[in-house]
Amino acid sequence: MDDFASESDSDYTSYWRDWFISSRGNEYFCEIDEEYLTDRFNLTGLNTEVQYYQYALDLVTDVFDFDCDDDMREQIEKSARHLYGLVHARYIVTTRGLAKMLEKFKKSDFGKCPRVMCESHPLLPMGQSDIANSSPVKLYCARCEDLYNPKSSRHAIIDGAYFGTSFHNILFQVYPNMLPPKSQRRYEPRVFGFKVHAAAALARWQADEREKLKDRLRTARVENGFEEEDDEAEEEEEDEEMEGDGFEGAVVQQ
């Protein structure tokens, strides 16, 4: 602690944030400015969402001096991480926050799109809900406009509310030149070099979906018209087999 006391106030107050950002699994987060964290207006309403709110805020801003046992310290530390995440969702839609996240986006810090046709386009973190503990973070590709799960299990457990549902859209509104052209390339199924006819592909997809629906209805024990169709199909198959057997018998008698 003496080493930190010898540093400037600015260096000391950023210690917890530096530790948090540099920790494994927190690579998606950017550092929140001290001025933003100490402005109570930016923290409006968070005191009701975070346990041990004041202690957690003191820890994040490095003014924590409460003497407590290890269990209590662990709870406060957990609350501090949650508080930082909630404030982070607000900060990254500000001018400064967008600029920091843009730099991380340019460096592909959030990963690259796994879709082959997108040619490793950088991804952006986003939440599917603004309410905490609703769903984990997802990765958005602006080229194919689809969502993906993070590759690392450490990132997959991050709360999506720490990034919110609007951040990625606001980023491209503020920096429209970063919005990539939509991908027009699509995989075309082929057989021996020839394209599969669209009608054949559609029929195959419809048949697969029909079978999936049948399985779900059977599992749920819901009465449906598919059972009658299946019985009729079985009867037709039996009739065809009987006719074939009779024809073979006639040939043998001759």
What does this entry look like structurally?
Helix 5 (53-60) packs across helix 6 (70-91). Strands 1-2-3 form a 3-stranded antiparallel β-sheet, with no helix packed on it. Strands 4-5 form a two-stranded antiparallel sheet. With 254 residues, it is mainly α. The chain is built from 11 helices and 5 strands; from the N terminus they run αααααααβββααββαα. The longest helix has 28 residues, at 226-253. It folds into 2 domains: 16-178, N-terminal domain of TfIIb; 190-219. Residues 221-254 are annotated as: Disordered. It comes from Bimuria novae-zelandiae CBS 107.79. This is Casein kinase II subunit beta. Tetramer of two alpha and two beta subunits. Tetramer composed of two alpha chains, one beta chain and one beta' chain. Keywords: Kinase, Transferase.
Please render the helix and strand layout as text.
Blueprint: H1 2-5, H2 9-13, H3 15-22, H4 34-38, H5 53-60, H6 70-91, H7 95-106, E1 124-126, E2 138-141, E3 146-148, H8 153-156, H9 167-174, E4 190-191, E5 194-195, H10 198-220, H11 226-253
Helix pairs in contact: 5-6
